[in-house]
Amino acid sequence: MIYDVIIIGGGLSGLISAIELSRAGLSVLLIEKKDYPQHKVCGEYVSNEVFEYLKSLGFDPFIFGAKNINRFELSAVSGIKLSTELPLGGFGISRFALDEALYHIAISQSVNFQLNDSAEHIEKVGNSDLFRIFTQKDKVFNAKLIIGAQGKRSVIDKNLKRSFFEKRSPFIAVKCHYKGDFPEDLVALHNFKGGYCGLSMVETGHINVCYLSSESNLKKYKDIRKMELELLSQNPHLQTVFHNWEPVFKAPLSISQIYFHEKNLTDQHVLMVGDAAGLIYPLCGNGMAMAIHGAKLLSEQVLRYFKTEIDRITLEKNYTKIWKSHFSNRIKAGGFLQNFFGTPFVSGTAVRSLKIFPFMAKSVIKFTHGKKI
Ligand SMILES: Cc1cc2nc3c(=O)[nH]c(=O)nc-3n(C[C@H](O)[C@H](O)[C@H](O)COP(=O)(O)OP(=O)(O)OC[C@H]3O[C@@H](n4cnc5c(N)ncnc54)[C@H](O)[C@@H]3O)c2cc1C
User: Residue 253 has what pLDDT?
Assistant: First the structure.
């Protein structure tokens, strides 16, 4: 069988692309290396940019118990704190619930799944326009078009010889759910030396605690728990979390080698979307909205290609141009803001300044976000 489209990776960008393309009548196979549901390292605060769009696909987060979030707190390493309203706001829902709900919508839209298997190699079939994908379980699939939605870093990036793959990243990220006392309408971002930690409630009433830290912190403390108790807890707001709250997971989830910035939008004619196309620093809290919006934009161009309105070269050019016009500036703004986080002096000065000029805080947040789609 030759599929119209094969999608590598079934996170948000892969699932949304699959739903969009399948409901428009294309035959779609999604290859996902794990199963549903599963926890993922993510802050789990979704910007309202994509709320109406998700509803139009048949997913209403509040039916699943998502929390409505409209307040933001930012603290410096010392604990000095700024509070403000969020201009657009968002909702708190776990990836465990969100990805699984979208997976069921995809099944109802006749998307085919190859789960618990990893796409390893891609090759072009002779001089034709067809692609062949080889998986870890020795399956071979053919398609007219491939979408790369494999997230931050994957074996497929290595095998496609993507240029970012060899670049070392100085960051690790850790996530765990906790039982504790925290308002459900709040997302908080607390600085510590060499990183920052986000807190927000998800549909279960548990609090997602997710942080980005320099790799050197972990090397120094050798152990995640020790680092949380001795380093992160220097911020009094985080001390409460790590000393008083009860973890829900047996052990926290962690990832490393997280490359921020843009990547190539196409590599060897594979169309990249979501984190595979470019990852914004998590302090901006809208990587998921970008992954969802990016998948919508890509699907529109892919459908034009299958209607023969555009050829493959135009598809790749159009998509690259459209993606950059929507997201490049945000990623750059996120990179600039990152400089104000994770150091006692700079984060303290930034929080004190924003306390004096609160309107600036809202402007900064708006700068890293888009409009509702
Ligand atoms: C610390 C941290 C906190 C964050 N907090 C937030 C936040 O609060 N709000 C927000 O909006 N964004 C946040 N983000 C960003 C957000 O998590 C990502 O932007 C979003 O998950 C991107 O979705 P995706 O579909 O591109 O990738 P993913 O959701 O990572 O999905 C990729 C999928 O591909 C699969 N896969 C990988 N390789 C293969 C392969 N070879 N074959 C088959 N399957 C494969 C994986 O198993 C995975 O399911 C955060 C990011 C980090 C690092």
Answer: 97
Atom of ligand 1 nearest to the CA of 135: 42
Amino acid identity, residue 125?
Answer: V
Domain boundary assignment for the chain: 2-367
Q: What CATH number should be reported for the domain whose range is 2-367? A: 3.50.50.60
Residues above pLDDT 90, as percent of the chain: 78
The answer to whether 237 touches 188, Cβ cutoff 8 Å, is yes
Share of the chain above pLDDT 70, in %: 92
Element (H, E) at 370: none
**Burial class (CB within 10 angstroms; exposed 0-12, middle 13-18, buried 19+) of 326:** middle
Residue count of the chain: 373
The owner of tokens 């159009």 is 318
The strand pair at 207-214 and 261-262 is best described as unpaired
Helix (H) or strand (E) run with residue 198 in it: strand 195-201
Round to whole Å and give the CA distance between 114 and 211.
32
- 164-200 per-position pLDDT tens digit: 998 888 899 999 999 999 999 999 999 999 999 999 9
355 CA distance to ligand 1 middle (Å) = 33
Q: Which of 288, 298, 330, 368 maximizes ligand 1 atoms within 8 Å of its Cβ, making it the mutation to test the pocket? A: 288
